[in-house]
Structures are given as C-alpha cells and as structure tokens.
Amino acid sequence: MKAFSQLWSLQTLADLPDRLRNLWQELIGSYWFIPTACVIAGILLAPLLVTVDQHFDRETIRNISFAFTGDDDAARAIMTAIAGAVLGVAGTTFSITIAVLSMASSQFGPRLLRNFLTDTPNQFVLGAFIGTFSYSLLVLKSIHKYDVSFGVPQLAVTFAIIMAIICALLLVYFVQHMVHAIQASHVIQNASNDAINNIYYWYSDQCDIQHQRDAEHHDVKVFHHWPAMPIYSPNSGYLQQIYFESLIALSQDYGGVIKLHVNLGGYITDKNVIGYFYQRPAEHPNNRQKTASPHLAIIPRSPDGMFWQRFTGCVRIEQRLAHSDDIAYSLGQMTEIAIRALSPGINDPKTAVNCIQSLTSCLSIMLRRQPPSPYHFYIPKSDETSSDDEVEQKRLAILALVTHTPKISDFINLSLGEIRRYAAADLMVLKALCYAMVNLNYARVNSAQQQTLLHELNLIKRAGEENLSYQELIDDLVAMCEQAKQFILDEDAQHQHFNYVSEFTANIRQTLQTQSS
Which of the pair, 18 or 14, is modelled with greater confidence? Predict the structure, then answer.
C-alpha cells in the first residue's frame, strides 16, 4: 500500500514505466502474491463451474468417460477428501520450505534467502494446493440433495478430481525441485543470471558515439564552479533506486545541475550529503532556451521546500538491502557464497572456485560492453513554427544530472578482491583467481583494464607469499603469476591459449620423454 500511495502521489510521471516495473518486481518477489492469486482464482472458478453445470446437459456429461456421475453423498465424500488432502500436503510443502530456508541461511547466508522465497515454482506449487482447497470448499458448499431443483455439480467435481491429480504430480515435482535448488551450483547460477541481466540493463552492447560527445559537453567541465548547495538524504537506509527522468525534470525546473555521489545499494543516513545542486548562472545561454515544458525555470532559482519534497520522490530508500538493478548487489551474492565456503565451519574451496568462475563470466561481459555515462542531458522540444537554425539552437542538450558510475576496477575489487582477502592461505582458490585474471584478459579492450588485471595479479602473488604454509606452494603460485603476467603483457595474448605448467610437472614430462627415447 505504501508503494501504491507513493506511485500516485508523484508530481511527475516521467519515470512511470520504471516505477511500475519496480512495483511489479516487489509483488512477484513477495511470497504471498502468487499463492493469493491462486486462492482468488479458485474462489472465482468454483461458482463459475457450478453455474455452467446448471445449464449443461446431464446426458452429455454421462457420455464423458472420465466425468463424475455419482450421487450427492459420493460427491461430498470426494470433495471432503480432496480438501483435507491438499491442505495437509500444503502444510508439508511449507514445512519443507522452512527447513530448506534454515539450511540455506547457514550455508549460503541470510541475504540469499530472498532467492528461495521468490522462487516462482515454489510459490506456484503452494498456490495450487491452497487454491484447490478453496475451490473444493466452495464446490462442497454447492452440493444439494436430489430433491432440490439442482443436484450434483458434476463438472465442478470432475474438475476438482483433475486438480487433485495435478497436485499429486506437483508434489513430486516440488520435492525434486527443492533437492535441485539447494545445490550450490544452482544457487550460484541463479545469482550469476541476475548479475548478467543487470549488466545488460546498464551496459550498452557497443560503444556509443553520443556517449563520447556527452563527455565533451562544455557544462561538464565548468558546472563545478557554479554556486552549489548540498543535498541531504531524506532518510536513512539503503539506496535502492534512482529515477533519472524525474531528477532531470527537477533540475531543469530549478535551472541547475544535480550531481549525486552515492551508488545503488549504498547505505546512507539522513545527515549524509549525497550530492549537490549546482545553480546555473543567470547569464548562462541555456536559461534563454524555449521549451514545451511549462515548468522550465528561465531564471534559475534556489531549492525550496517543493524541491526537497520532489527530490524525496526521485529516489527510493529502504531500511533493508533488497534485490534491485544494482550490479554490485548481484555480484556480492556470489562473493558472499564464496567467502562462506572458505570459512572453517564449511571449508569448501571448490564452491569458492565455482563462484570465481561465475564472477569471471560476469566481469568479462562488463569489460566488452560500454559502461553507462554519468552525464544525463535534457533536450528541449522544438517549436514546429521555427526555422531550421532556430530548431538546432533550441535542441542543444542541457546538462541536468551527473551520477556516480563505478569503474570495472571497483567491481573486480568488490568481488574477486574480497575472495582473495579471505583465501590468502588456500592455493586452489588463489590459482583460480590467477586463471580469472587470464580469462578476463581475453575480454579487455583498453590498457587501463590491462593495468587493473596486472595490479590484481600482483596482489594475488603477494597474498600467497605472505600466507601459504610451504615454500613449494609459494613457488608454484609465484611461477603461475609470473607466467600469467607475461601472458597478459603479450600484445597477441588474446589469440593464444594460456596453459600453466609447473616446474615439477615440466621435469616429470622431460624425464618421461628421455626414458621413452
């Protein structure tokens, strides 16, 4: 209800599609939505089929081989059995779900419980059970004696029998699905798919020329020198969503530029300065631009109470960190699984290696795609009665919003870097991190990304030198890091295959070749 009230209390509907999409994700992500929809479907379907029964030919029903044709006592017995059975099975499935959540919380972390709660098959199975229960109760209520004008609703009872058989099959599917869902590989794959979807949402598939032009805009270099006013967070919590179109409209209405210094998923308090509003100078040429917007501030004005009220509706801050379009949140899920797997209580380095491999796949996609531009512009609408030169003058882009965009080095440090710090004494994981740098090198597109990989590779080697127990293990890791470094520095490395061979393995091969010859 709070989300609905915020949605319809907005002064601008520029971000209405994004707000509706976020609201839909919250509904789908809740554990009650699909089961409630199934219950409502059962409540509506029962009187509908009973009404159809009243206008259906009885002789035609008897000709259907699988249709129910018994009397009212048999119908009551069947509907009572179905209602009691599916309600008991619904309780069993709920108990299994709670047991799985308890185990997943201890093994994968409490922040991954949402992935189990929002699992659509689990919600649909539970909804089918309680929906069938609701349907059976209402049909049972409509069964009358034969001496009444209307007798047994045969079609409705037949449909209940079919639903009972389907529920039995769903129970078998539910058990198989839960056994598959608690496997570490399945959990990691789901987290990886979420991260890839978020990457596709934010990162363009190719380099955009307009992105380069935006960076050369005149206001990009000079707006820092305009009069600035700090923007404070409206309340404390995690920043879950930023509505760009609403912020662009707000900055244009007040004749300035809004710059945000916070990232999605970051925790802020109500006293945090999360950005600044830079007021455009009075003599700035953009102040004379004529647009179709009636709220454009021709003369810049300072933020007032209405400004802060509208800014509150431009960002969504929640008290708990939940699923959103944040890439760091999706990558952090795999990082948390890997760190928990490396804890002494679990001690499962193979799961950590699987997380590293999935993170490598996600980061390689980010390396090949165009990152989002931090600069957001407002293009005024042209006047149809104006000449071409005047239209071109009016349609010059106006800088309105500047956001903080994390770099690829930040994502590597927050994901693979965190695993490196917890796996400093595990050779298997350190080698997997070294291979990750090599695999990421195949996807790099510039020298800055190459330097990031080399820097992380040096940290991996240093972690092994300071924490591995035996000198042989240290020498093995150092040799692998050196080979990986030379491979990354090779200009033609992206067309070659990297295969690390330890000194011990090389000596064994040489000895075998000597003996065979």
Answer: 18
- Pairing mode of beta strands 398-402, 256-260: parallel
Strands (E), 202-295: 228-232, 237-242, 256-260, 267-268, 273-279
Q: How many Cβ atoms sit within 10 Å of the Cβ of residue 60?
A: 9
Count Cβ neighbours within 10 Å for each residue of 11-46 and write b for 16 or more, e otherwise. Answer: ebebbeebbeebeeeeeeeebebbbbebbeebeebb
Short-list 297, 298, 316, 294, CA closest to 307: 297
Which carries the bigger pLDDT value, residue 159 or residue 26?
159
Give mean pLDDT, residues 394-399: 66
Q: What is the pLDDT of residue 440?
A: 94
Question: Under DSSP, is residue 290 helix (H, G, I), strand (E, B) or coil?
Answer: coil
Distance (Å, whole) CA 417 – CA 363: 13
The residue type at 427: L
Question: Based on C-alpha coordinates, what's the Rg of the chain?
Answer: 31
CA pair distance 8, 19, nearest whole angstrom: 10
pLDDT tier, 118 (very low <50, low <70, confident <90, very high otherwise): confident
Helices assigned H by DSSP within 108-203:
113-117, 120-141, 154-181, 184-202
Q: How confident is the model at residue 214 (pLDDT cuts 50, 70, 90)?
A: low
Rounded to an integer, what distance in angstroms lies between the CA atom of residue 430 and that of residue 441?
17
Q: How confident is the model at residue 393 (pLDDT cuts 50, 70, 90)?
A: very low
Whether the CA torsion 330, 334, 335, 340 is positive or negative: it is: positive
Q: How many other C-beta atoms can be found within 10 angstroms of the C-beta atom of residue 304? A: 9
Q: How many CA atoms lie within 13 A of 28 on its CB side?
A: 12
Phi, psi of 40 (to 5 degrees): -65, -40
| 8-state DSSP, 58 | H
b/e per residue 108-138 (b: at least 16 CB within 10 A): beebbeebbebbeebbbbbbbbbbbbbbbbb
Query: Mean pLDDT throughout 315-331?
Result: 82
For residue 385, pLDDT over 90 is answered with: no
CA–CA distance, 165 with 66 (Å, rounded to integer) = 13
List, for residues 75-105, the tens digit of each pLDDT value.
889 999 999 999 999 888 888 888 888 887 7
Give dist(CA 192, CA 196) in Å, integer: 6
pLDDT given at position 441: 93
**Tokens at 281, concatenated:** 């100078």
Residue 265: closest CA among 328, 341, 182: 328
Residue 311 is encoded by which pair of tokens? Answer: 């800014």
